[in-house]
Amino acid sequence: MTASIYDFSVNNIQGKTVSLANFKDKVILIVNTASECGFTPQYKELEALYQKHQSQGLAVLGFPCNQFGEQEKGDNQAISSFCELNFGVTFPLFEKIEVNGANTAPLYAHLKQSAKGLLGSEAIKWNFTKFLVDRQGKVTQRFAPTTKPMAIEGEILKLL
């Protein structure tokens, strides 16, 4: 049987283990984030989507990553403070992870295999790659870093 995202546990930004089964029956947008990236302003749109559709069952999950141009140098506390102070982020953030290479987080290995990128590539190309997951825990789509969060609102609404 293929794993669903509900089979994974991850550490939140405070270091506590969270089972993704806690998000069962929600539409989930999973994003690898960074604080010093040209796409960092997307935090604002991610938060806006979360605020607008949270009551309908949308969850946005942010996974900081320092693998692209070292644009996420801070520790978990610094990342959390930055997101809250600069973008008013209230959606869940998780511990810094790796999304490519030998130390790829198991969740990201699953996401990349479930929704391949351009030309069938599994590699994450940059910060703010987005994965959309339906209410059954199935990864339905991958969106490029250049795709603004509000541009995928229609896809989110279809699943809500």
TrEMBL record:
Active-site residues (renumbered): 37
GO molecular function: peroxidase activity
SUPFAM superfamilies linked: Thioredoxin-like (SSF52833)
Pfam families: GSHPx
Domain (Thioredoxin) ranges: 1-160
Domain of life of the source: Bacteria
Family listed: Belongs to the glutathione peroxidase family.
The name this protein goes by in its record: Glutathione peroxidase
Phylogenetic lineage: Bacteria, Pseudomonadati, Pseudomonadota, Gammaproteobacteria, Alteromonadales
